Prior knowledge:
Chain A is of the alpha+beta class and 354 residues long. Chain A is built from eight helices and 20 strands. A six-stranded mixed sheet of chain A has the order 6-7-8-3-9-10, with helices on both faces. In chain A, strands 13-12-11-14-20 form a five-stranded antiparallel sheet. Chain A has a five-stranded antiparallel sheet with strand order 15-19-16-17-18, with no helix packed on it.
Amino acid sequence: xxxxPTDSRPLDLAISGIDKSFGxxxxxxxxxxxxxxxxxxxxxxxxxxxxxxxxxIIAGFELPDRGQVRLGGTDLLALPAHKRPxxxxxxxxALFPHLRVEDNVAFGLKSRRVPAAETTRxxxxxxxxxxxxxLARRYPHELSGGQRQRVAxxxxxxxxxxxxxxxxxxxxxxxxxRKEVQGELKRIQRQYEITFILVTHDQDxxxxxxxxxxxxxxxxxxxxxxxxxxxxxxxxxxxxxFMGSANLIPARCPGTPVAVCGFGALHLPAPAPWSxxxxxxxxxxxxxxxxxxxxxxxxxxxxxxxxxxxHWELLIRVGEGTSLxxxxxxxxxxxxxxxxxxxxxxxxxxxxRD
Amino acid sequence: MxxxxxxxxxxxxxxxxxxxxxxxxxxxxxNSTRYGQxxxxxxxxxxxxxxxxxxxxxxxxxxxxLGVISTVLATVLGTLLxxxxxxxxxxxxxxxxxxxxxxxxxxxxxxxxxxALVGAFAVLREWxxxxxxxxxxxxxxxxxxxxxxxxxxxSSRLTTIGKDQVEAARDLYANTGQIWLRVLLPQLMxxxxxxxxxxxxxxxxxxxxxFFVTGPEATTLPLLIYxxxxxxxxxxxxxxxxxxxxxxxxxxxxxxxxxAARTAKPQE
Amino acid sequence: xxxxxCGWNSRQTTCWSCAIKxxxxxxxxxxxxxxxxxxGALLVxxxxxxxxxxxxxxxxxxxxxxxxxxxxxxxxxxxxxxxNLSRLAGHDEFGFSWNHLLILWRSVVLAAVTTVLCxxxxxxxxxxxxxxxxxxxxxxxxxxxxxxxxxLVIRTYAWQQFLxxxxxxxxxxxxxxxVPDGASLYPTVTAVYLGMVSAMLPFTVLPLYTSVERLDWSLVEAARDLHAGRLRxxxxxxxxxxxxxxxxxxxxxFIPSLGMFVISDMLGGAxxxxxxxxxxxxxxxxxxxxxxxxxxxxxVIASLFALWGLRIxxxxxxxxx
Lengths: 354, 268, 321
């Protein structure tokens, strides 16, 4: 079931300069991405950022106003959707209610008039891979949400497309099922070596499955990197807030490697490129100290303490109206109302773009 | 929940209102007295006479032919209309106007439709003699108000099917012909048949429009019964009416039973 | 961007439209606007053409006809006149008479009273059916529907039979002295109402039932919880929730009732004239089409009025919720 490219050059997806507007609203601005063959890419962003529109453009249900989409050397935009070697798993699964599961899965093969014997064989293999073989003769309305999703996946994968598009496939599943499916998606992608493009607004999901995350904001790419890069080193305020991992500190920087913020002055490794902007620091990088630290010490009051199983999450008030989230080891004993010293090591302070 | 005591009483009153007269006719159909209503004795004579009554048979045949032809025409036109409206991105004003146009025959009182058609045929008669009052005008008239019903039923079915499936089929390499054949039509068929049945029922039952539009040779069952009532009802008419009522009852109960059976299929 | 294959025919050629018009996407295939709307227009046009010729144009013609004159021997003379309207309002060649206005008034009153009676009977019926076990409900609804699918003529003449002088009902009334001996219970106003209510009742019960079925009883409980009296509980707990069904039932009962003429004809006798009868006469024996059209116009306007009034009420209710 491995994908064998028809020519020796792997089929990379090259998207360049995509503009798309719906009436007065511009949804995509000059979007350009290169996706090498076999990569698991996630388009991550809030609703309205254009990620689903981009997916539909690749699938063939929208035409961009400007720009190009090429797969290998082929211009995809000149092909209607049913001629593109791209398959989609829809958010609503879009299973055909009047066909049994096995007929649903076989649909794409039958459309292309694949001989019956081969169709049966491939359908069977796909259903085995997705572990739905025993559901073959059932109808979609007799299946649970998780089962339907597996059918939708099998229906797409059996065609061995060059690119598989997934539109928020796990939004209808409960948390436990979601974890399972995430693992399975990763496994299948490795096995089939197909390019996967996943669209979601859930950052945990993106981090769990992707090789590469593209964070989208209002039609352009805010950050493009591996899950670690995006999570640990957000480049802009939007990304930092969206990933929800870091503390945001508004600050002023007069040109020296010192930033002045609401609760004091912080030393930076290098001057910030702006005079007014934001710093970020992750909760696990802030240290709680007994005494005032040598560099970047901040005095604060513990206003909340939540146990998270493997760590404590402290909400510490510093300065007027600003709170920092800090993570500590589970064996550390603090209490609410306690005054503590915090250390914000300069090397862990991220200077955001804005 | 507990209902006040008068609720069942009122409900039975309502049911009585609906069925009592029909029951009276049924009883009379077995009455051997030919004129008047005093009870003369039980007989099924009238049913036998009904079956061999020329006028009744001719009217029944007319009703049937009229129903079938007008239903076929209306189903074709109405289905095409529903498909055309649903599967194209028409601008809003067009959709609104179409909605209005389709709903117009449904909300307009029968008699207004009738006189409009009479007017139309009067004008068209100047142009061709084919539009003189008779079977042709009946068929045209029935088709005209049936189209809306078919369109509404098929449209709603199309909306239920939704856009996603067409896109999914397209994504799975199906061209337009295949999408119609393998995805849309199989799911649309029940709607088309339902629309056709609805139209057929409406045609069989119609009195007001037929009354205005028909000619001397083309009598339908409702018209025949009306004429009989005017002249003086014969017991064969009682028999005919009872047959129609019972037939309708059986048909509706059958449809209800089938629908109930279908929705009782195992769900997750 | 140009489509190099013509999306709507299977031949891989490029037609004039694909060559010069910009490509759009529809349901995943590449096409052009002329293609898309051209075929759509064909599908839609057939039915609309039919209905236009046989329905819409004549309806427009009717509105115009209301202002035309009657010719010498019964034809139509297309000279503009207010005569028909004034005749409807009571002024004809013999001076003012209440005749026609009475007819209009009677029609509206009949429709209104019928609607109220149907609601009074139909609402409890809807509740009663909803309270039956689930298996019985479709059957009961079917039973309610059956008479409405039976021909109106049959149903009405059945009332004639039932109210006949030798039938039990008339017999009881004769013995109670309500009617003279040997008389039947029709043609009377009561007979007309009996006929109307029994004819329209199914159209009232069914929409009411759909609302009642969806009733959220917890809201009723809440009202009772807050010590609302029985009337208040009913009003705010039940009635408020059933509004959509109530409005639908009113429309479906009132408007057809306005246009009825069969029932009044058969059960009300020659004196009990309604708008429908008036129209029927003008297009029949009286051969005065323009006047008939005017009466028809009144009917249409009354129906539209009712629809509009009910729409306002429903929007107010929806806004309140």
